[in-house]
Backbone:
C-alpha cells in the first residue's frame, strides 16, 4: 500500500525513467525509427549542405574528425564527386522510408484482405488464393523486378508497387494460418452464437487477435524492403542515380572501398541502424500488445 | 399443461471424411426428441458420442445434414442465415471451456454487452443497465466488468459466459458441459447459479454432460447417447431406478455407491467405443452389449416408447412387445 502511494507521489520524470528502464529494446527501437523519420521529413533543414552540390575540390575528403590536414569541411567526409556524405545520408532516409512504409502498406492491405477471405470463408476461395500465392512464391523477386523494370523503366513508385505485389503472400499466409487456428476457438463460435455477422466477427474478434503477428511481420517487412531497395539500387534497378539513396551510395562507393572507406561504411551503418530500429520496435510491440503479458 | 419449446425430428449431422466423397462421420445420426418449456433435458454419453455436436447443431452453429429443429413450432433449419441470426436471440449456448470461450482482447463489459449490440436491443444507457443487472445475477461486480478475461478464475469466467448467454433474454439455453472444466467446489457454485436463474427467468436448458451425478442433480429428463444416437430417454427417476437399455445400465453401475453396504453389481463393458466413421452393423452397441442376440447384428433398433415418458432403442424390448402380442 505504501509503495503504491510512493509511486504515485514521485515525479513524472522518474516514471519516464522507469519506463525506459523496463523497456530498453522498445526505447532504442523507437529512437532509431523516430530519428530516421525526422531525418526524412526535415531533411532540408537538417542537412548541412546541398546533397546534390558537387565540389571537385572536396573529392573523397576524409571525415572532418579524422582529417588532420584541415582541408575537409564535411563531418562524414565527401564522396567521389565531392558531395557531403552526411547530407546525402539524411536525404537518403526519404527513399528508404518511403519504400519501406508504402511497400508494407500495400502488401499488408492486400495480404490481410486475401488472407482473411481464404482463411475465414475457405472452400474454393481458399484453394484459389493459396495456389496464387504459391505461384507468386515460385517467382524469384529479383528476376521479377528486373523484368518489370526493364519493361516499364526504373523509378521509386515501381519499386514500391513490385514490393507490395510480391510480399502480400507472406501476410496472406500468416493471416490464413492464424485464422484457421482461431476459427476452432470457442470464442469465435460464441461470437457467431450471440448473433454476430461475419463482418463483425472478423473486425471485432479475429483481427484484434491476429494483429500482433501481423504487426511484427510488418516491421520485419519494412526492414526487409529497405534492404531490398538498397539491393535493387545497387544493381542499378532502383531510383535514378541523382537521387540520394543508401543503396545507390553503396553501389557508387564500391570502387573506392580501399581508398575511401567512409563512402561505403556510413550509408551501410544508416541502413543497419534503421533496419535494427524497426526490428526492435516490432519485437517490443509484440510483447506489449499481448494482453496476457501485461501485469 | 406442457407444450414443447423445442422439437427435434430425425436430426442428422454428418461430417465428410477427408479424401473421400462417400464416407461420412456420423456424429449425430437420426436423433428425435422434444423439450418442454421450463424443462431441463440432460444429455449424457461418453466422449466422442456426438453430444457437443448435437448441442451446436441445435443452435445452428453447424448446419444439420438432415432433419428438422422446431423452436416454438417454427422449423429453424430452413431459415435464411439472416433469420437464423435473429433467432439466436431466443437460443443461446454456454460453452465447455471457459478459457477458450471469451475473447482475450475484450473487456468483460464488452463481452456481455455484445449480444445486445448485435441484436440492436435498447439504447446505450439501457444496454449498460441490462449488463449490470445480468452481471449482478451471476455475481460479478461493476469493477470486475472493466477487467480482461485473463484476470479471472475458471469459475468466474464461466459466470461471464453465462451472463453473455443470458443477456439477450433467451428461452432456450444449450449448456455444453458447462462445469466439466471446473473444480468440483466451483461446479456446484456454477450449477446453483444456473438453477436459480432457471427459476427466476423460466429458462429451458439442454444440459450436456458426461457426469451422471451432475445430471442427476440438475435435470428433469435424461437422454443417453451412444455413437450419435439416443438409446434411451426417460424421466430422471425412471431412468435411474429402472434403466432399460444395457448401455444405460452399464453407465449407472459405474456410479459410486452412496452407501458402503449397498449391494451393487458393476457392469464392465468390453472394448472401446467403435469408430463413428465406421459404426457396427445393426444395433451400434452390439459389439459391447452383454445381452447381445443374433438379431442385434443385423437389425437396427429404433427409439420406442415402452411406458409413459420412457423410450428405449433396444431389440430386447421390441422382442418382448411382439411376444406379448
Residues:
Amino acid at each position: 500500500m505504501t509503495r503504491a502511494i510512493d509511486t504515485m507521489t514521485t515525479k513524472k520524470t522518474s516514471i519516464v525513467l522507469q519506463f525506459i528502464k523496463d523497456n530498453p529494446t522498445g526505447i532504442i527501437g523507437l529512437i532509431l525509427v523516430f530519428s530516421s523519420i525526422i531525418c526524412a521529413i526535415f531533411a532540408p533543414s537538417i542537412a548541412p549542405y546541398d546533397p546534390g552540390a558537387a565540389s571537385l575540390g572536396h573529392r573523397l575528403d576524409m571525415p572532418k574528425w579524422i582529417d588532420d590536414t584541415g582541408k575537409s569541411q564535411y563531418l562524414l567526409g565527401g564522396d567521389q564527386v565531392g558531395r557531403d556524405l552526411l547530407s546525402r545520408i539524411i536525404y537518403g532516409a526519404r527513399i528508404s522510408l518511403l519504400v519501406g512504409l508504402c511497400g508494407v502498406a500495400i502488401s499488408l492491405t492486400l495480404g490481410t484482405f486475401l488472407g482473411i477471405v481464404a482463411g475465414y470463408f475457405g472452400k474454393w476461395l481458399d484453394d484459389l488464393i493459396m495456389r496464387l500465392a504459391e505461384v507468386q512464391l515460385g517467382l524469384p523477386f529479383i528476376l521479377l523486378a528486373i523484368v518489370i523494370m526493364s519493361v516499364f523503366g526504373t523509378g521509386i513508385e515501381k519499386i514500391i508497387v513490385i514490393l507490395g505485389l510480391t510480399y502480400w503472400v507472406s501476410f496472406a499466409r500468416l493471416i490464413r494460418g492464424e485464422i484457421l487456428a482461431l476459427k476452432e476457438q470457442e470464442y469465435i463460435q460464441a461470437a457467431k452464437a450471440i448473433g454476430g455477422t461475419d463482418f463483425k466477427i472478423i473486425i471485432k474478434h479475429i483481427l484484434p487477435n491476429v494483429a500482433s503477428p501481423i504487426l511484427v511481420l510488418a516491421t520485419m517487412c519494412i526492414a526487409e524492403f529497405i534492404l531490398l531497395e538498397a539491393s535493387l539500387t545497387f544493381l542499378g534497378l532502383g531510383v535514378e542515380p541523382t537521387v540520394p539513396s543508401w543503396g545507390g551510395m553503396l553501389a557508387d562507393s564500391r570502387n573506392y572501398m580501399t581508398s575511401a572507406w567512409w563512402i561505403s561504411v556510413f550509408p551501410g551503418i544508416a541502413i543497419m541502424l534503421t533496419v535494427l530500429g524497426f526490428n526492435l520496435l516490432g519485437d517490443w510491440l509484440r510483447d506489449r500488445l499481448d494482453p496476457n503479458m501485461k501485469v | 399443461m406442457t407444450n414443447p419449446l423445442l422439437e427435434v425430428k430425425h436430426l442428422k449431422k454428418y461430417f465428410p471424411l477427408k479424401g473421400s466423397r462417400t464416407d461420412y462421420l456420423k456424429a449425430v445420426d437420426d436423433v428425435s426428441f422434444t423439450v418442454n418449456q421450463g424443462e431441463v433435458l440432460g444429455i449424457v454419453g461418453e466422449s466422442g458420442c456426438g453430444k457437443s455436436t448435437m448441442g451446436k447443431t441445435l443452435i445452428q452453429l453447424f448446419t444439420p445434414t438432415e432433419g428438422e429443429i422446431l423452436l416454438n413450432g417454427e422449423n429453424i433449419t430452413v431459415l435464411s442465415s439472416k433469420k437464423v441470426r435473429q433467432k439466436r436471440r431466443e437460443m443461446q449456448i454456454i460453452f465447455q471451456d471457459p478459457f477458450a470461450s471469451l475473447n482475450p482482447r475484450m473487456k468483460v463489459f464488452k463481452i456481455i454487452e455484445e449480444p445486445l449490440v448485435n441484436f440492436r436491443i435498447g439504447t446505450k444507457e439501457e444496454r449498460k443497465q441490462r449488463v449490470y443487472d445480468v452481471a449482478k445475477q451471476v455475481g460479478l461486480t461493476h469493477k470486475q466488468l472493466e477487467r480482461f478475461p485473463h484476470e479471472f478464475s475458471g469459475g468466474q469466467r464461466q459466470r461471464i459466459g453465462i451472463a453473455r448467454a443470458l443477456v439477450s433474454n433467451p428461452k432456450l439455453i444449450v449448456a455444453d458441459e458447462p462445469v466439466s472444466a471446473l473444480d468440483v467446489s466451483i461446479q456446484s457454485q456454477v450449477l446453483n447459479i444456473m438453477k436459480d436463474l432457471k427459476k427466476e427467468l423460466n429458462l429451458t436448458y439442454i444440459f450436456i454432460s458426461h457426469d451422471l451425478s451432475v445430471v442427476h442433480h440438475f435435470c428433469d429428463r435424461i437422454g443417453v447417447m451412444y455413437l450419435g444416437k439416443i438409446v434411451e430417454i426417460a424421466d430422471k427417476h425412471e431412468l435411474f431406478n429402472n434403466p432399460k437399455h444395457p448401455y444405460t445400465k452399464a453407465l449407472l453401475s459405474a456410479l459410486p455407491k452412496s452407501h458402503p453396504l449397498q449391494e451393487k453389481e458393476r457392469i464392465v463393458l468390453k472394448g472401446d467405443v467403435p469408430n463413428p466413421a465406421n459404426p457396427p452393423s445393426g444395433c451400434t452397441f452390439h459389439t459391447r452389449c452383454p445381452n447381445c442376440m443374433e438379431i442385434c447384428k443385423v437389425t437396427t433398433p429404433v427409439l420406442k416408447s415402452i411406458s409413459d415418458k420412457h423410450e428405449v432403442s433396444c431389440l430386447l424390448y421390441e422382442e418382448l412387445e411382439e411376444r406379448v402380442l
